[in-house]
Design goal:
This protein has about 220 residues and is mainly alpha-helical. About 80% of the residues lie in helices and about 0% in strands. Helix 2 (about 20-30) crosses helix 8 (about 165-215), helix 3 (about 35-70) runs antiparallel to helix 7 and helix 4 (about 75-90) crosses helix 6 (about 130-140). It is a multi-pass membrane protein.
Length: about 220
């Protein structure tokens, strides 16, 4: 029970850090500036539903994806750990990681796109780092852990939705400096989580190597 609780708390911390509702709320208010309340709510809902659908797919199908591509758990954890570390490293230095940023500076609305789906849903909320973390948490194939993983991410999407709707109030309360400090703190947490995931992958790879040579 204690191990399960610890694992759940790690999931919560990991998702909160990589989705960073505070910083993403600033992005949301910027790209929805000038919209009426109904459009803002619709965009926020579209963003979190897009992220939820994408990440839940990887959470639930992670084991199938592993088997299909012949990916081992240690390989995923090493690669995911490196990716998550560098995303956190960028956040610590006040930069937006390219993995969780729009591919172009052009306004999505001007291109006729639904900005709730892109860039808000993907890659800002459901970027490669989020997907790597979600798959790492479900990689063991334990049904209980997969269920908790899906639940935690669903709750985080709900929290993000509330932050989006309260965007202007959140920005006013925290200010630019407050958002910067929180983002840097989330970056530090994320970097540590990335290193932890990577170390688990390295130890797992060593164990697989030893088992291979012993057989």
């Amino acid at each position: 029970m204690h191990d399960l609780l610890s694992h759940t708390l790690v999931m919560i911390g990991g998702y909160f850090a990589i989705m960073n509702p505070f910083a993403n709320t600033a992005i949301f208010t910027a790209v929805t500036a000038g919209m009426d309340d109904r459009s803002v709510k619709k965009t926020a809902f579209s963003a979190v539903v897009t992220a939820l659908g994408i990440v839940l797919s990887f959470i639930l199908l992670g084991r199938i994806i592993f088997d299909f591509f012949g990916i081992t758990l240690p390989a995923l954890r090493v690669a995911g750990g490196i990716m998550v570390f560098f995303i956190g490293f960028d956040m610590m230095h006040g930069r937006t990681s390219a993995a969780h940023a729009p591919a172009s500076d052009n306004s999505p609305a001007e291109q006729g796109q639904n900005i709730g789906i892109s860039p808000l849903g993907i890659p800002i909320l459901a970027g490669p780092g989020t997907i790597a973390v979600s798959m790492s948490y479900s990689a063991t194939g334990n049904v209980q852990e997969i269920a908790i993983n899906a639940l935690v991410f669903s709750i985080m999407c709900m929290v993000t939705y509330v932050f989006f709707l309260l965007g202007e109030k959140v920005e006013q309360k925290l200010g630019q400096e407050g958002l910067k400090v929180i983002t840097q703190l989330m970056g530090l947490i994320l970097s540590v989580i990335g290193i932890q995931i990577g170390l688990e992958g390295i130890f797992g790879a060593i164990s697989l190597f030893e088992q291979h040579h012993a057989s």
